[in-house]
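Q: Could you fold this chain for me?
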Amino acid sequence: MQLAKVVTRAAEGRNVRTVHLRIGALRQVVPETLSYAWDFVSRDTGLGHAKLEIDWVPAVVECAHGHREQVGPLDGLLCPTCGKPGRVISGEEFTIVDIDVDAHK
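A: Sure. Below is the predicted structure, expressed as structure tokens.
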């Protein structure tokens, strides 16, 4: 899992307590699957007891008429108000917000 590699590198040998993520609804991430994978991978990478905190970001599209609307991951990118194609404003994120580590190695 790429995430574990990035976190391990950023921790620079310090114990990682928490990894805070921001994940958009359009990323099609299943929370239970991500948690299971993290538990499995973190054991094998030395991240041990590091916990995941996840902020889920809703999918929002904006159409040519200026409507900004929240859409579900299966709704497509059409504006729910007028039916016109929209561009994604939010919902595609997969970002490490911060990592809580011990002060000393």
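A (continued): The first helix runs from residue 2 to 11.
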